[in-house]
Amino acid sequence: MSAPLVSVVIPTYNRRAYIANTVRSVLNQTFGDFEVLVSDDGSTDGTEDVMAEITDPRVKYVKRPHAGRPAIVRNHAIRRAQGKYVAFLDSDDLWIPRKLELQVEMARRNPDAGIVYALSRNFSVQDWKGITSPYRFKRAGEVYHYLLFYNFISIPTVFVPRKVLDDVGLFDEDAKFRAVEDYELWLRIAAKYPVAFHDGVVAYYRLHSANISANRIGEFDRLVEVLKKILALRPVPRWMERKIFAKIELRRYKYWLTQARDDVSAKRALANALALDPLNAVGNVINLMCLAGMKEQVRKLIR
Fold first, then answer.
1. Annotated domain spans of the chain
2. pTM score
3. d(C-alpha 211, C-alpha 30), whole Å
4. What is the per-residue DSSP string for 71-89?
């Protein structure tokens, strides 16, 4: 048999309730020249039994010892992949039927692109949410400087030529990048390659209490580590670097004020943001409102 054009990488850990629907959303694709590599990080909930019921020969399931880091699990599958392109999907998310068809076409039209991506929509048991990352600035072409400020590339939409991964490397398996290893890889790719963007929803990102990304504790410190690494590889002007890190401090401020409701930590984060970027308009407006005793109004405004 010839190698498939696309390798679909699905890492999983204790997702028995979701994995069958996730794999089915791949098998229902209008484009059929693919393999599915399900890399199980030592699940203990019966995921293996669910996967045993899936008999499509394009699906390859491998269970490995538990590592607790998605980067290791994804890389394990990528190293086994045979496709010219690699597409990523987490084991609780879903694709629309034309996802691969659309992105294969885009990749062929944009042979220099390091990433082809699109929009995803959040959903939960209760209802459908908004579009993931409706970033209002540049989405395609040379996006490196924009991506430094905000990760607007949603992982279940990502489609990458294998040759690009061979060039820049796979996900960084260092524990300090856990849960932000996707952002680190997108930045490494965008630092060397343009990206292509499809302006439509191709995937559904499931929100639930077990999402790794739902745990915000320590996320901001890990983002700082990612950016330090990337900026050492491709530096930017000092003024831009300060604005990038100020943006993280403002996100930290929002978390402390609205979710953790820790006013002392919030005040510290806002001070750090303004020390880095004294002319930051958002930070200065928030600071003036707080000085005027309008903290509750700020809390409602930025929620």
1. 6-214, 237-302
2. 0.92
3. 29
4. HHHHHHHHHH--SSEEEE-
